[in-house]
Specification:
Elements (H helix, E strand, L loop, with lengths): L1 H23 L4 H30 L5 H12 L3
Length: about 80
């Protein structure tokens, strides 16, 4: 799991660096906003994965699906 999260975070870092280059180069605002949205969504997914893993480790088996559903719903609110 740590390797998968590391890979996701490295991709996000690349996205953020690309956004920085776009801003510095006077890129199209719509393209910049699209990339910002994609980076935010990717970070939200990383947070969701971490939260689900924590729930799986700390919530009784019978309540895990409910905990995962709550986490997914909450992560969509931000």
């Amino acid at each position: 799991m740590a390797k998968e999260l590391h890979n996701r975070l490295m991709k996000i870092a690349g996205q953020v660096n690309a956004i920085d280059r776009m801003v510095a180069g006077g890129g199209n605002p719509v393209d910049i906003l699209t990339q910002i949205h994609a980076a935010k969504a990717a970070l939200t997914r990383v947070a969701e994965i971490i939260a689900v893993e924590a729930a799986a480790a700390n919530v009784p088996e019978k309540d895990r699906q409910m905990a995962e559903d709550v986490i997914k719903r909450l992560s969509g609110l931000s």
